[in-house]
Fold this protein.
Amino acid sequence: MRIGGFLFGSLVGAAAVVYFSRNNKPTMASSWSQAGDSINNLVDTAKNKMMNMSTKMQQNKQNPSQNQTGMEKVEDIVNQDPRVKHQVNEILQDNNVSKPQITQ
């Protein structure tokens, strides 16, 4: 394609846009405004999510106990009370569980 044809097509396209948008200037302005508002909302949402994630990461670094798996949390709870620990060990023995008893 030659450059002259490209320039001519661009000119015709621009003229068509101006012709069709001549009667709808207020509508076009509001469309651009709405598009800008949508983009701003999207950016704000992304910023908030990033801030929440970084806050959660900082909290996890400060409280490593919150990073425990479910079983680690159960073991911590069991180890807090000797009676519960004894009951859990009895249940594990009754069920012939091959896992070692909870000790600490």
Remarks:
- The radius of gyration is 33 Å.
- Helices lie at 3-21, 25-62, 70-80, 82-94.
